[in-house]
Amino acid sequence: MAKKPNKPSKAKKQQSGGTPATVALTAAGVAYTVHAYEHDPAHPSYGEEAAEAMGVSPERVFKTLVADVDGALTVAVVPVAGQLDLKALAAAVGGKRAAMADPALAERTTGYVRGGISPLGQRKRLATVLDASASRHATICVSAGRRGLEVELSPEDLARLTNAVLAPVGRA
């Protein structure tokens, strides 16, 4: 009986510079591009900083926000050029009321720090809603799991890997 070759462990992949998000993308065999930039702690907006640093339209750079919908943490992925519509988010997941989650709880639950929360590779898989505007682009950028690191991939791949619902949850 032939022996299967050992696969590198998650820890080994992460030690080589990957984040849980990039490890998840690699494991899924998804095409993606990593964009690194020097994070400025004084910049007022993580998402706008990423768009500026990469020279990408803010409509193609999406921020990952964690909200509490009727007591359940839910991820919303919306363009950095706009805001999250909490009522629309609640409706998208069949809830009644949504509010932004406590930042410390969001960090503990996802395993990422604020400004670096990725919709991919989270410690605990949460219900995810991707703003419908993502489907207008061939690729979008989301956090790769730390400040100063973005990953570019197709919105279809992001939706598939996160089991996301597509819904109009962003507003200008």
From TrEMBL:
Pfam families linked: tRNA_edit
UniProtKB keywords: Lyase, Protein biosynthesis
Domain YbaK/aminoacyl-tRNA synthetase-associated: 48-161
UniProt enzyme class: lyase
Keyword Protein biosynthesis included in the entry's annotation: yes
SUPFAM superfamilies attached to this UniProt entry: YbaK/ProRS associated domain (SSF55826)
Region (Disordered) residue spans: 1-20
Enzyme Commission identifier(s): 4.2.-.-
Signal peptide: none
CDD domains per record: YbaK_deacylase
Bias kind Basic residues: ranges: 1-13
Family statement drawn from the similarity comment of this UniProt entry: Belongs to the prolyl-tRNA editing family. YbaK/EbsC subfamily.
Alphabetized NCBIfam families for the sequence: YbaK_EbsC
Protein name (database record): Cys-tRNA(Pro)/Cys-tRNA(Cys) deacylase
Species name: Streptomyces violaceorubidus
Gene: ybaK
